[in-house]
# Entry
Amino acid sequence: MFNPESFIEEVKPQILNEIGDEKILAAISGGVDSTTAAVLMYKILGKQLLPIMIDTGFLRKNEAKKVKEMLTGILPLQILDKSDEFITRLEGISDAEEKRKKFREIFYSTLSNIAKENGIKYLVQGTIAADWVETQGGIKTQHNVLVQLGINTEKEWGFKVIEPLADLYKDEVRALARYLGLPKEISERQPFPGPGLLIRVVGKLTKEKLDIEREVNEIVEDRLKGMEYSQYFSVIIDSQKVLDERISTEAKVPVYIYDTRATGVKGDVRSYGKIASIPEIDDYEKVREIVQRITKYDVTHVGMLINEKDEGKYSVGIRAVITQDFMTADFAKISLDKLKEIACEIVKNNKEIKEVFYDVTSKPPATIEYE
Ligand code: XMP
# Structure
């Protein structure tokens, strides 16, 4: 059983010994891991810690402001707006790995500049066990996993990375967050990836897609909060797709395949596969059987359509999963009525959205995110 008190007693002397009188930078993404890591360091090192949040432009709507408010009296967070630079440099990129790698490059060179300006030689990160396990396993290049990938951060960016949560799993991080007195909004918060909405604007990144995704995600999160799902959000893809006769015959429903691809896991490795759509079916057991037939064909994510119109160029996906450790996950059985209600709201004010689907794939064979 994880005991936060003994955990702190164990890491405190190690951190004091390693950092000494030096200053250390903490970059917070708005997720539970990076915030908990920063607050832990603040408790141990006090004013030696410089906690910042970079507004990358890929944060959720009003995220920086909300996080700053939630941390009032707990952590003296500074917000740095670098959104124009991030968006300009990432616009037009389609490939998921390229996006992640480019994001990482901009992110860490920004941190490197801040560190140099402030004479700082250390950076604290909220990397947890699942991050490096999955990166080493080839599931994805988690943006914050550096040392484990053999990147020499001191040579590359001039700071040494400290990862006090590297051996903890999510539920242990939450327990630590509660022990450290973080508000419930943070300790029980659903995870939010470091590259943020960048990995939810699937396929080519454009400013228009990103702006729609930010608005839609706000609706999805708001309507699904308090329902005890482990993670819930929206994704956006271009809506071009074609009917696949062979898969439709096998699945016994019309199955369309999108031009855009998305990540999944097969065996222990990350795989890249197709995204499929199926019509609305009011029986999740039947849906599960159909998905099993479809995912035999190099398909990683299956979306069940819940709202369609003739006009528009984007498809929006709603994703909600239930999981213990985020290494495997089940899609949530949300009622069709509820999904339709959310979908109606999503399309109501947005003529560019052609359809809304609900992701009915578990992990594996899908990943939780699409990229
Ligand atoms: P997947 O999509 O691999 O996600 O099933 C598992 C968990 O990891 C989160 N995730 C990330 N978190 N940087 C992060 O900090 C990333 O690059 C990243 N990619 C995925 C995801 O949201 C889920 O909770």
Q: What stands out?
A: The mean pLDDT is 94. The two ends are 33 Å apart (CA to CA). The first strand starts at residue 24 and ends at 27.
